Amino acid sequence: MTPEEIMQVAIEAAEKSETPYGAVIAQGSQIIEVAGNSVFPDNDPTAHAEVNVIRKLAMRSGTKSLEGYTLYTTYEPCPMCAAACLWANLSEIVYGACVDDFVDYNPNLIDLRCQDVIEKSPFSVQLKGGLLLEQCKNLHKLYPIE
Ligand SMILES: [Zn+2]
Questions:
Q1: Counting Cβ atoms within 10 Å, is residue 109 exposed (0-12), middle (13-18) or buried (19+)?
Q2: Is the pLDDT of residue 26 over 70?
Q3: Which terminus of the chain faces fewer neighbouring Cβ atoms within 10 Å, N or C?
Q4: Which tens digits make up the pLDDT trace of 50-92?
Q5: Which residues surround ligand 1, an ion (CB under 5 A)?
Q6: Which helix (H) or strand (E) holds 93?
Q7: 3-class secondary structure, 40
Q8: Is 134 an active-site residue?
Q9: Which helix (DSSP H) or strand (DSSP E) does residue 139 occupy?
Q10: Beta partners for 35?
Q11: Lateral strand order in the sheet of 22-27
Q12: Of 4, 5, 12, 50, which residue is the catalytic one?
Protein backbone atom coordinates (compact mmCIF):
# COMPACT_ATOMS: atom_id res chain seq x y z
CA MET A 1 0.00 0.00 0.00
CA THR A 2 1.09 3.56 -0.58
CA PRO A 3 1.30 6.04 2.33
CA GLU A 4 -1.87 7.67 1.00
CA GLU A 5 -3.71 4.33 1.02
CA ILE A 6 -2.54 3.66 4.57
CA MET A 7 -3.73 7.10 5.70
CA GLN A 8 -7.07 6.40 4.04
CA VAL A 9 -7.47 3.42 6.38
CA ALA A 10 -6.75 5.74 9.33
CA ILE A 11 -9.42 8.12 8.00
CA GLU A 12 -11.92 5.26 7.80
CA ALA A 13 -11.09 4.34 11.43
CA ALA A 14 -11.71 7.97 12.39
CA GLU A 15 -15.06 7.95 10.59
CA LYS A 16 -16.13 4.92 12.64
CA SER A 17 -14.99 6.44 15.95
CA GLU A 18 -16.98 8.46 18.46
CA THR A 19 -14.62 11.36 17.85
CA PRO A 20 -12.88 11.84 14.51
CA TYR A 21 -9.42 10.47 15.09
CA GLY A 22 -7.89 7.35 13.59
CA ALA A 23 -4.45 5.77 13.61
CA VAL A 24 -2.64 2.95 11.84
CA ILE A 25 0.69 1.31 12.52
CA ALA A 26 2.43 0.05 9.41
CA GLN A 27 5.64 -1.76 8.67
CA GLY A 28 6.78 -0.43 5.34
CA SER A 29 3.80 -0.69 3.00
CA GLN A 30 1.92 -3.22 5.16
CA ILE A 31 -0.75 -2.27 7.70
CA ILE A 32 -0.18 -4.06 11.00
CA GLU A 33 -2.77 -2.51 13.36
CA VAL A 34 -5.63 0.00 13.22
CA ALA A 35 -7.49 1.89 15.96
CA GLY A 36 -9.81 4.81 16.47
CA ASN A 37 -10.35 7.14 19.38
CA SER A 38 -12.45 5.53 22.14
CA VAL A 39 -12.39 8.10 24.94
CA PHE A 40 -16.17 8.28 25.29
CA PRO A 41 -17.22 4.63 24.85
CA ASP A 42 -14.40 3.46 27.12
CA ASN A 43 -14.65 6.34 29.62
CA ASP A 44 -10.87 6.49 29.24
CA PRO A 45 -9.38 9.96 28.76
CA THR A 46 -6.15 8.39 27.50
CA ALA A 47 -7.84 6.33 24.77
CA HIS A 48 -6.72 8.49 21.87
CA ALA A 49 -6.33 6.66 18.55
CA GLU A 50 -2.53 6.74 18.71
CA VAL A 51 -2.38 5.33 22.25
CA ASN A 52 -4.98 2.69 21.33
CA VAL A 53 -3.09 1.49 18.27
CA ILE A 54 0.23 1.40 20.17
CA ARG A 55 -1.39 -0.59 23.00
CA LYS A 56 -3.00 -3.06 20.59
CA LEU A 57 0.22 -3.80 18.71
CA ALA A 58 2.50 -3.86 21.75
CA MET A 59 0.19 -6.24 23.60
CA ARG A 60 -0.33 -8.46 20.56
CA SER A 61 3.37 -8.62 19.70
CA GLY A 62 4.52 -8.99 23.30
CA THR A 63 7.05 -6.18 23.17
CA LYS A 64 7.08 -2.57 24.27
CA SER A 65 9.42 -1.52 21.46
CA LEU A 66 7.84 -0.76 18.11
CA GLU A 67 11.09 0.21 16.44
CA GLY A 68 10.87 -0.11 12.67
CA TYR A 69 7.18 0.74 12.56
CA THR A 70 5.48 3.88 11.26
CA LEU A 71 2.43 5.38 12.96
CA TYR A 72 -0.05 7.14 10.67
CA THR A 73 -2.58 9.38 12.35
CA THR A 74 -5.27 11.64 10.96
CA TYR A 75 -4.30 14.41 13.32
CA GLU A 76 -0.99 15.63 14.70
CA PRO A 77 -0.33 13.72 17.93
CA CYS A 78 -1.14 15.62 21.12
CA PRO A 79 1.64 15.82 23.75
CA MET A 80 0.42 12.61 25.44
CA CYS A 81 0.36 10.68 22.18
CA ALA A 82 3.65 12.16 21.00
CA ALA A 83 5.27 10.95 24.22
CA ALA A 84 3.62 7.53 23.82
CA CYS A 85 5.11 7.29 20.31
CA LEU A 86 8.53 8.10 21.76
CA TRP A 87 8.23 5.64 24.64
CA ALA A 88 7.21 3.00 22.07
CA ASN A 89 10.36 3.65 20.02
CA LEU A 90 8.34 4.12 16.85
CA SER A 91 10.61 5.02 13.93
CA GLU A 92 8.29 7.39 12.11
CA ILE A 93 5.13 9.44 12.68
CA VAL A 94 3.04 10.58 9.71
CA TYR A 95 0.04 12.80 10.36
CA GLY A 96 -2.63 14.52 8.28
CA ALA A 97 -3.99 17.70 9.82
CA CYS A 98 -2.00 19.70 12.36
CA VAL A 99 -2.89 21.54 15.57
CA ASP A 100 -3.47 24.80 13.68
CA ASP A 101 -6.03 23.10 11.42
CA PHE A 102 -8.21 22.07 14.38
CA VAL A 103 -7.90 24.97 16.77
CA ASP A 104 -11.25 26.41 15.69
CA TYR A 105 -13.01 23.08 16.29
CA ASN A 106 -11.50 21.90 19.53
CA PRO A 107 -10.98 24.34 22.42
CA ASN A 108 -9.33 21.63 24.52
CA LEU A 109 -6.10 21.48 22.55
CA ILE A 110 -2.79 21.73 24.35
CA ASP A 111 -0.63 24.19 22.47
CA LEU A 112 2.48 22.05 22.24
CA ARG A 113 3.45 20.69 18.86
CA CYS A 114 4.56 17.11 18.29
CA GLN A 115 7.90 18.37 16.99
CA ASP A 116 8.43 20.27 20.25
CA VAL A 117 7.85 17.10 22.31
CA ILE A 118 10.32 15.20 20.11
CA GLU A 119 12.94 17.94 20.44
CA LYS A 120 12.65 17.90 24.24
CA SER A 121 13.20 14.13 24.34
CA PRO A 122 16.29 11.95 24.01
CA PHE A 123 14.58 9.97 21.22
CA SER A 124 14.78 10.42 17.48
CA VAL A 125 11.79 9.79 15.27
CA GLN A 126 10.99 10.92 11.75
CA LEU A 127 7.99 13.28 11.61
CA LYS A 128 5.99 14.18 8.52
CA GLY A 129 2.74 16.14 8.34
CA GLY A 130 0.13 17.04 5.77
CA LEU A 131 -0.58 13.63 4.22
CA LEU A 132 -4.14 13.71 2.82
CA LEU A 133 -4.50 17.02 4.62
CA GLU A 134 -7.89 18.04 3.24
CA GLN A 135 -9.52 14.68 3.95
CA CYS A 136 -8.15 14.72 7.51
CA LYS A 137 -9.27 18.30 8.10
CA ASN A 138 -12.75 17.45 6.84
CA LEU A 139 -13.20 14.77 9.51
CA HIS A 140 -14.11 17.46 12.01
CA LYS A 141 -17.03 18.57 9.90
CA LEU A 142 -18.60 15.15 10.49
CA TYR A 143 -18.12 15.21 14.24
CA PRO A 144 -18.05 18.70 15.73
CA ILE A 145 -16.61 18.74 19.24
CA GLU A 146 -18.51 20.96 21.65
ZN1 LIG B 1 -3.54 12.29 21.78
A1: middle
A2: yes
A3: C
A4: 999 999 999 999 999 999 999 999 999 999 999 999 999 999 9
A5: 48, 78, 80-81
A6: strand 92-97
A7: helix
A8: no
A9: helix 133-142
A10: 23
A11: 30-36, 22-27, 70-75, 92-97, 126-128
A12: 50
